[in-house]
Write a structure and sequence with these properties.
The chain has 181 residues and is α/β, with parallel strands linked by helices. It contains nine helices and seven strands, in the order βαβαββαβαβααααβα.
């Protein structure tokens, strides 16, 4: 485990920024278990969890000594930041994230991703597309406010895929070439 990073990490950011991918790569490097909020929230068949049940699941995970939790879910972010020591904020451009969301939809349509609950296959959803398009204006300010209100949490902000690669390479004992933004 890298003491400069911490042992209770939240990975947050725009849908399509690569939160789940980063968490999945970070877990083995830091030897921390990874939990995906989408997997905790969704029930099979894209059925939403009861909000209180969702909070209980999150709290149970956070009471553990070590973890990485990926997902923005701004309604529970202040709670997660109470337990976290580190926040990794993927603050990518809207266009890049929308491109990635649509690429994921095209390449994974009908398949269940490992970061989602069983029987929640990838699908196209106009309301999700609109929510993602409006994310920077509506959700990002809530994330920034929550981070500001949690000064005890070390925040690492990465603004492009090249920064993510360079940061991961700095944590890994094996050197990797990094790309710019």
């Amino acid at each position: 485990m890298n003491p400069a990073i911490g042992k209770r990490i939240v990975v947050i950011g725009h849908p399509g920024s690569g939160k789940s991918t980063l968490a999945g790569r970070l877990g083995p490097i830091l030897k921390l278990p990874v939990f995906h909020l989408d997997k905790l929230f969704w029930k099979p068949g894209w059925v939403e969890s009861d909000r209180e049940a969702f909070r209980r699941k999150i709290t149970e995970v956070m009471e553990g000594e070590i973890w990485i939790i990926d997902g923005s879910y701004t309604s529970t972010l202040p709670l997660r930041l109470q337990y976290a020591d580190t926040a990794v904020h993927l603050d990518f451009s809207r266009l890049l994230c929308m491109w990635r969301i649509n690429r994921r939809w095209i390449t994974s349509y009908g398949r269940v991703r490992p970061d989602l609950a069983d029987d929640c296959p990838e699908r196209f959803d106009w309301s999700f597309q609109r929510w993602c398009w409006r994310y920077r204006r509506r959700q990002r300010p809530l994330i920034m406010s929550a981070l500001k209100d949690a000064p005890q949490v070390r925040t690492i902000t990465l603004t492009c895929p090249g920064q993510v690669e360079a940061w991961l390479a700095s944590l890994s004992p094996v050197a990797h070439p990094s790309r710019g933004c």
